[in-house]
Design a protein that fits this description.
alpha/beta; four-stranded parallel β-sheet; three-stranded antiparallel β-sheet; 36 helices; 54% helix; DUF5682
């Protein structure tokens, strides 16, 4: 074949439609061009592995935005995406070809080749680190427009339809040819999913230059596309339309020998097997510039441009009407007159700025000034809901996907939990069968790191209520593929993932949390392995702090076992053993701690105290189930109280290296006092010992901090405690008082404001005795006020002499009553 025949083969009836990915103007132009051309084959820039999935794009239940997700078999974490919106030119071309019954194929470099290139070590070519040029920015700069987006909108997106539907593509091809005139190599590659190219880029690094070295990634892509165009011609197609990125048009139109293209592609490394599937996407994902996004700053606005057949005031008025409705729903009043004024202002701004029609900048400026009345908060709502927009696509339930995705879709449909891109709150009552099943699904998904729902803490009372915040991120589709390695169903995958986490857990606390998650997710088959690992770690471990961290989660798991009807026998046995080991090692674990270590141990002390109380009160312990050893030596709560009492009586002898910090001794006294195991007299004695002159003032101050951590109201009710504290403060030397002041301020800052005011009033009034002795004197009885209350008391008690309650005031007549009269 000579050069002339080769050129005729490449340029005969092949029409190259250079587009900007995700551009609504390009999409409308593609639709008009395809209608005029009536091609017998449509070739589109995209991964060829997805050709078999293109037929699904013609179904009504595949609703954009959607994306093609590709990954090597067995390596779902290396996924790549090709997103499509309703306003994407490629999507318009696909739907047009399917509607007309015309063959449609993807002709870009296969995704498998991208994965293979990404595995190779980076070359030494100096062009390997270059970024892909932005041709739109170059053209905008040549036209004197610093904003490429605004220039493209004026030239392409806002232009009226031409009589010749191919005219815009001819102009774009000519501009791209000028830009690439000095580029003998072609398009440099780009690592990862490049934000400016959407459906046209994969994850491969650029290669070396052409001078006897390996070709660049862009050259490989264009060589492959040229070969696919030749293949379409050999298949007998004579009117071929190629929809590709505008930058590639000159390279695809230029004459090049087929042998040269095959030689370029012969150097490709071995390709891995690849799986491809359709997944739902969202406008929010399209707006991201990293990860699997497409870098479109305003997909909602682009959708509005694409849906508007006219680009005049009517389209602008519709957008402002939607903005007004949105703001009214957020309790921001907007009148119809404001909508009219906003349209006029946007058009005036466009005229002043020399733009053909009002663009996004003019529209937002008018919305800020007129509809939002200068409020950036209101404008942020408009940006979020209308400029970006939260639209989630849909994929048919029978579309090819990993088995885990099919099971998740089935559960979502059965449990009536529809994925939504906007956050919403879900309140579950675990006593209801449907809500309990929903809770199990959400907890199992959290084990798989699919955070569709996040539990909201502190919103319910009791254990029968759960509150979740739901928000479906399309990026979770990648996580679903990754989680498929653990099982083909949600339950099996969660159990498999739990077993792996149990094997990797490094501390008893991690294993205890896994046991809690196991019960929350109702995975009884996985629980024995977790409990066995926890029992082994607890038996062999000597770190009391680590055991103390594990106990609260384990006791919480017992509580949820009650709610969900799970067998708790083995779990209770491990929890009791863990509590006993913490009790035995408590004294040694609290010795020789620094200030930060004492604060952390105080938190553990409180958590273990609550856990033991819960273990005793019935969450994991019943009177008739106690063992003989429990009966002989007391309950776990009794033994824990004895350990706290021993800790409270420890002396801070030997300095901080061998003594127990005052923070922990004071906290132990307060816990025993609150539980009724110490009287106020015993607490006063221990406070007096802690504040005696024999100890260090700093240790006494930390003792006070620990004692007051449970609240300071008892100082208002026991004058002797307050007097002891007052006397100690008065006796502290001035130099030491200055050093103690931060500790005291921190201790009293945790008290409620009313308690602090009450203590201050008592101190200012001189109520505490000078030596802290004697109960506080009561104020004298006001006989006159007491006599005034007696009739009401007699009435409440039913005794004679009570004053009857006054009759309620007459009801004010309503207008209906007056009408009836």
């Amino acid at each position: 074949m000579n050069e002339g025949e080769r050129e005729a083969e490449m340029t005969g009836e092949v029409t190259l439609l250079g587009v900007r990915h995700h551009g609504p103007g390009s999409a409308r132009a593609v639709a008009a061009a395809l209608t005029a051309l009536r091609p017998d084959a449509v070739l589109i820039e995209g991964p060829p592995e997805a050709d078999e999935l293109l037929a699904l794009a013609g179904r009504a239940d595949l609703v954009p935005p959607v994306a093609l997700l590709a990954h090597p078999v067995g390596e779902p974490a290396r996924a790549l995406s090709w997103p499509f919106a309703a306003f994407s030119p490629e999507w318009v071309a696909i739907r047009h070809a399917l509607a007309q019954g015309v063959p449609v194929r993807f002709v870009d470099l296969p995704a498998a080749a991208r994965f293979a290139l990404a595995e190779e070590p980076a070359g030494s070519d100096e062009r390997a680190g270059q970024a892909e040029p932005d041709p739109i920015a170059v053209l905008a700069a040549a036209a004197g427009q610093p904003d490429p987006e605004a220039w493209w909108e004026d030239v392409v997106e806002h232009r009226l339809p031409d009589r010749d539907p191919l005219a815009p593509f001819e102009a774009i091809a000519e501009a791209m040819a000028e830009l690439r005139a000095d580029d003998p190599v072609g398009t440099p590659g780009s690592p990862g999913v490049h934000p400016g190219t959407g459906a046209g880029v994969g994850a491969a690094r650029p290669g070396p230059g052409p001078a006897g070295t390996r070709p660049g990634f862009g050259e490989l892509r264009e060589a492959y596309m040229r070969l696919q165009i030749r293949a379409a011609r050999r298949a007998g197609h004579r009117r071929i339309a190629v929809v590709c990125g505008a930058w590639h048009v000159p390279a695809l139109a230029a004459p090049r020998a087929a042998g040269a293209d095959r030689l370029l592609l012969a150097a490709l490394p071995k390709r891995p097997r690849t799986e491809v599937s359709w997944v739902p996407w969202s406008h929010g994902r399209l707006a991201l510039r990293s990860g699997y996004g497409a870098g479109i700053e305003s997909p909602g606005w682009y959708q509005h441009l694409f849906d508007s057949a006219d680009r005049g005031p009517a389209a602008l008025a519709r957008w402002f009407a939607r903005a007004a409705e949105l703001l009214r729903g957020a309790d921001h009043p907007v009148s119809a007159a404001q909508v009219i004024e906003a349209v006029r202002l946007a058009e005036t701004l466009a005229a002043l700025r020399g733009r053909p029609v009002a663009g996004l900048a003019e529209t937002l400026d008018a919305a800020r000034a007129v509809l939002c009345e200068g409020s950036e908060i209101a404008l942020a709502l408009v940006r979020e809901q209308l400029v970006v927009g939260e639209v989630l696509g849909q994929v048919p339930a029978d579309a090819p996907a990993v088995p885990l995705q099919h099971d998740l879709t089935r559960l979502q449909r059965t449990l009536r939990l529809r994925p939504e891109p906007t956050g919403r709150e879900l309140v579950l009552d675990l006593r209801k069968e449907l809500d309990a099943a929903r809770s199990l699904l959400l907890h199992r998904l959290r084990l798989l790191e699919l955070d569709w729902g996040r539990p909201v803490a502190g919103r319910g009372s009791g254990t029968f209520k759960e509150v979740w915040q739901l928000c479906w991120d399309p990026g979770l589709a990648v996580a679903v593929v990754t989680a498929g390695q653990w099982g083909s169903t949600v339950e099996a995958a969660a159990a498999g993932r739990l077993a792996q986490l149990a094997g990797q857990a490094a501390t008893p606390a991690e294993l205890a949390r896994l046991a809690e998650q196991c019960l929350l997710a109702d995975l009884p088959a996985a629980l024995p392995a977790v409990l066995a690992a926890l029992a082994d770690r607890a038996a062999l471990g000597s770190d009391t702090a680590a055991l103390a961290d594990a106990l609260p989660a384990l006791v919480r798991a017992l509580r949820y076992g009650d709610v969900r009807g799970t067998d708790r026998g083995a779990l209770e046995q491990v929890a009791r053993g863990l509590a006993e080991r913490v009790r035995i090692g408590l004294g040694a674990a609290c010795t020789g701690l620094s200030g930060a270590g004492a604060a952390a141990m105080r938190d553990r002390l409180e958590a273990v105290h609550r856990a033991v109380a819960l273990l005793e009160s019935g969450a994991g312990s019943r009177l008739d189930d106690r063992s003989a050893s429990d009966t002989a030596s007391g309950s776990p709560a009794d033994r824990w109280a004895a350990a706290l009492a021993g800790l409270a009586d420890r002396e801070p002898t030997g300095g901080p290296a061998t003594g127990v910090p005052g923070l922990l001794r004071g906290r132990a006294v307060r816990l025993l006092l609150d539980d009724g195991r110490l009287t106020f007299g015993q607490a006063r004695r221990r406070l007096g010992l802690a504040l005696s002159g024999a100890g260090e003032p700093a240790d006494a101050a930390s003792w006070i901090e620990g004692f007051l951590a449970g609240g300071g109201a008892l100082l208002l009710h026991d004058a002797q405690l307050l007097g002891l504290l007052d006397d100690w403060l008065l006796a502290v030397p001035e130099q030491e008082f200055t050093a103690l002041l931060p500790l005291l301020r921190r201790a009293f800052a945790e008290l409620e404001a009313g308690v602090r005011r009450g203590i201050g009033a008592r101190i200012a009034a001189g109520h505490p005795a000078a030596a802290g002795g004697g109960p506080q004197a009561e104020p004298p009885l006001d006989q006159q006020r007491a006599d005034a209350a007696l009739p009401t008391v007699r009435l409440l008690l039913g005794l004679p002499g009570g004053t009857p309650a006054p009759s309620p005031p007459a009801r004010i007549p309503r207008q209906s009553d007056r009408r009836a009269a």
